[in-house]
Specification:
The chain has helices at residues 3-8, 18-35, 42-52, 117-121, and strands spanning 13-14, 55-56, 61-62, 66-68, 74-76, 81-82, 86-89, 94-96, 101-102, 107-109, 111-112, 124-127, 130-132, 137-138, 143-144, 149-150, 155-156, 161-162, 170-173, 178-182, 190-192, 195-196. It is α/β, with parallel strands linked by helices and 203 residues long.
Length: 203
């Protein structure tokens, strides 16, 4: 099995491979270009994101600075907004669905290392894909760990550390992140405490 196949299949590999690091450097050069754009250069940012990511949908806006191990293993749907300092440890695939909101200082991590100290000393690594389904909101400072899937419509509270799958249609918070409650009828009527949603805002 090649090193690139191992990267995609959860197998141990050594990330200090010279050819791999050279390939990664090319991705990081593109990322550097994105982070040097001016706020007014919206179209240029779009062009660079199409070079950087595996897939980019329509109406995607990512605030620089953006950090990524590769970029080319990240798949982004339509109508996605990510605030400042998004970090993508995308040594394997990260899938971000449609209508996803990502707060500032969020880390989405698909790469990790074995516990064994000798393996870590030799730069051993393995990767597990991360899937964020449609209409998810990830609060500021949250960390999504390798192998996690977050179900559609779910809200991840600020500062949460997501260590396992989170189902659809829930609010989940904490470290480790746990389901607090389901999204319910009241959430369809009030946007904050007793602040009511105007019908005209929904249409």
């Amino acid at each position: 099995m090649s090193i690139r196949e191992k990267m995609k299949n959860g197998k141990l590999y050594f990330c200090n491979d010279e050819a791999l690091m050279k390939e990664q450097m090319q991705c990081l050069e593109v990322l550097y270009d994105f982070n040097q754009t001016r706020p007014s250069q919206v179209e240029k940012r779009k062009e660079i994101l199409h070079k950087l990511f595996a897939e980019v949908g329509t109406n995607v806006y990512i605030e620089p600075p953006l950090r990524a191990n590769w970029g080319r293993h990240t798949h982004v749907g339509n109508d996605v907004y990510a605030n400042f300092n998004l970090t993508l440890v995308d040594d394997t695939d990260i899938y971000i669905g449609n209508n996803v909101l990502i707060g500032p200082n969020v880390t989405i991590d698909a790469g990790t290392h074995p516990i064994h100290p000798e393996l870590r000393r030799k730069s051993a690594q393995y990767n597990l894909p991360v899937v964020i389904e449609d209409n998810v909101w990830i609060g500021a400072g949250a960390i999504i760990l390798p192998g996690v899937r977050i179900g559609e419509n779910t809200v991840i509270g600020a500062g949460s550390v997501v260590t396992k799958d989170i189902p659809a249609n829930v609010i989940a918070v904490g470290s480790p992140c746990r389901v607090m409650r389901e999204i319910n009828e009241r959430d369809m009527k009030y946007y904050h405490k007793d602040m009511k949603i105007d019908e005209e805002d929904l249409f």
